[in-house]
UniProtKB/TrEMBL annotation:
The UniProt record lists the keyword Metal-binding: yes
Matches recorded under PROSITE patterns: NUDIX, NUDIX_BOX
Protein known as: Nudix hydrolase domain-containing protein
GO molecular function terms noted in the UniProt entry: ADP-ribose diphosphatase activity; metal ion binding; NAD binding; NADH pyrophosphatase activity
Highest taxon of source: Eukaryota
Signal peptide segment: none
Record-annotated Nudix hydrolase domain positions: 109-239
Family annotation (InterPro entries): Nudix_hydrolase, NUDIX_hydrolase-like_dom_sf, Nudix_hydrolase6-like, NUDIX_hydrolase_CS, NUDIX_hydrolase_dom, Pre-Nudix
CDD domains per UniProt: NUDIX_ASFGF2_Nudt6
Similarity annotation: Belongs to the Nudix hydrolase family.
Length: 271
């Protein structure tokens, strides 16, 4: 029996409902409300792949909710592999034309972090000591990770409020660095944001922060652990230069994307 005849037979069998994407692929969104046993899933998957191959499809995406995790093994047996996972689902992919390399885009290639430089009217910088981490015992700038759907400068404002109770407004982006093979082997972006404090009484976070206070800028920059790290020293030097009005950073300019007109921010020097 040739492949065309085999595909024709499979078409007569039950196949998965799928959405066509813009790249000659299909997307299957499995429903947690529709329980399925291993055998039925495996049978439908084989028939569906044959049908999609006949239709000239390339990439296959299957989104499995966590409630259907017992079906993962059946998909892997058919040649699917993991693309990414979130708290409530796993995304599996399959490339039909084996003779050419797949073109699936990479997922979650970067983690984005922020450091907040908050300077008060007396030239003091807001610093914290964390209860755990690489910088334990050293005064450091408040830091954190940007949440999904959150703008970089707003993440800095949020992290400062959460760690110290200080409300702030964004002034400008001072610098950023990129590193690779970092968190779980992914790349890492870290942005240093300057913020203006709107209040000055510290109410530190109890779970993660050991201490928090306003410190003279020069005292912060002279700490031995800060100066032992080339990166930390460079960041401290930028903050000192900014305090002395010898450094210009980037403003957050509200604009729209060209293809969808969605609002976004361009970080740039003022023109």
């Amino acid at each position: 029996m040739d492949s065309f005849e085999e595909a024709s037979i499979d078409i007569k069998m039950e196949i998965f409902e799928a959405i066509e994407d813009n790249y000659r692929g299909v997307i299957v969104n499995m429903k947690k409300e529709e329980p399925m046993d291993f055998l039925k899933f495996h049978t439908m998957l084989k028939a569906s792949i044959s049908y999609w191959r006949l239709k000239g499809k390339k990439g296959v995406w299957i989104k499995l909710p966590i409630e259907l995790a017992h079906l993962v093994n059946a998909a892997v047996k058919e040649g699917f592999w993991y693309h990414h996972a979130e708290a409530t689902y796993l995304m599996l992919v399959y490339w039909i034309p084996h003779e050419i390399p797949h073109t699936f885009p990479a997922y979650a290639s970067h983690r984005i972090g922020i450091g907040a430089f908050v300077l008060n009217q007396d030239g003091q910088v807001l610093v914290v000591k964390e209860k755990s981490g690489d910088m334990t015992g050293t005064w450091k700038l408040p830091t954190g990770v940007v949440d999904e759907g959150e703008d970089i400068h707003m993440a800095a404002v949020r992290e400062v409020q959460e760690e110290t109770g200080i409300e702030t407004e964004f002034v400008e982006l001072l610098a950023f660095r990129q590193s690779h093979k970092s968190f779980f082997g992914k790349s890492d972006l870290f942005f240093i944001c300057m913020l203006k404090p709107l209040n000055f009484t510290i109410n530190k976070q109890e779970t993660e922060i050991e201490e928090a206070k306003w410190m003279p800028m020069e005292e912060y920059a002279s700490q031995s652990k800060v100066n032992q790290s080339e990166l930390s020293k460079m960041i401290a030097n930028i903050c000192v230069a900014k305090k002395e009005e010898q450094y210009n950073g980037f403003s957050a300019l509200l604009t729209t994307t060209g293809h969808s007109s969605k609002k976004c921010y361009l970080y740039s020097n003022n023109i």
